[in-house]
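Page 37, top half.
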Amino acid sequence: MIEHATAGCAPSDRALTIAPLAGRIGAEIGSIRLNGDLDAATVGALRQALLAKKVLFFRGQGHLDDKTHQAFATLFGVPVVHPTLPGDGGAFLLELDSHRGGKANSWHTDVTFVPDYPAASVLRAVAIPPFGGDTVWANCVSAYEALPDALRVLADGLWAVHSNDYDYAANQTSADPALDAYQSVFAATVIEAEHPLVRVHPETGERALVLGSFFKRFIGHSQADGQRLFELFQSHITRLENTVRWRWAPGDVVIWDNRATQHYAIDDYGKAHRVVRRVTLAGDPPRSVNGQESRALSGAKR
């Protein structure tokens, strides 16, 4: 099914086409050339599509460079730097280069180890392997909505600690010195935050599960019980019905609502080269169903 947005899109002035890619998440947007000068109506239409579909995909945006990538991203929010990794190619641009340890092959929501983790991310494909290297996104809203009533009640009251000091080695597919070095920088300063398991989306009012690989422990529960709870709720998030998978081509751009999704960049391309660049946009601390706000915990350098 192809939906047509009512707003025109600069510079072609044609209606946006919104083609859903899966039943619960994801849509490909056509009839648009991304840049930092899109008109307000087009940006508004894209914002509404993002809230509805959670992830938007754009083919054929090879004209973008680092500067115009960042300019486009600023139409949707305020760019922020990564709290532990250096930028590359621009003040707010983070490069993920597989030959330099830039892999993220675990289910996660970006940067949940800070209390006000990013609201959204804009990712651009620079170098893509001839095979493999897909990314999968999961809808954390539909995962919550599909929970049995008793599990929703349980989830609504749980809080968890998230940390950048996590067991990344558990997800390595093979020995990788570059990845080891990358992770050493990533977690050189340990940062932790407390989040409700269920956050209320600040724009839609929807409830979304907040988990992923930065999860450390559930507050008030033993490590063993907390791990069982994690596996229970995480398994609902990553059910195939809640996911969409994207096969990258150079020049593709993807925007996702980081408040309502998790994603997984699949490390299945051997020693081939994969480079993507990301701009993240400032978020606000999640609020629980009873209005309590996420909290920062003290961090310390190793």
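Page 37, bottom half:
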Amino acid sequence: MLPFLPLFRRLRHGLTLGVRVLAIDGEGRLLLVKHGYTPGWHLPGGGVDVGESAEAAARRELKEEANAEVEGALRLHGLFFHPSYGGRDHVACFHGRVRPGPALPPNLEIVAATFFPLDALPQEITPATGRRIAEWRSGASPGERW
């Protein structure tokens, strides 16, 4: 193997970092979003921008996707490997209290952002979202993969 090949691969396929949030309102309901480009209900979140911390990205995504403001601190639930995106993607999942603002109109990215009671979550939750909710609710140690 050529000596520069590992470096070239690393530069060409950099690590990506995304965030998701287990966001709970004052009534104990969980915020989920439905995207216009993929099926199922997801935890709100997205990519971390250049020069942005993971927590700042989580706060920004909550505001952009659901007009929700974090109250107090966000706590890290776990850091997860997400092999579906180039084999180097990771997701930082936070949890915390949020204060909902006025509902945003649906758009091409987010067609719905809804707070659900924990005992009445929709059936169309994605598998990874379901795992994160189950870990958080039970206090179980987070898994390694998204």
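Margin note: The helical segments are 5-12, 54-66, 127-138.
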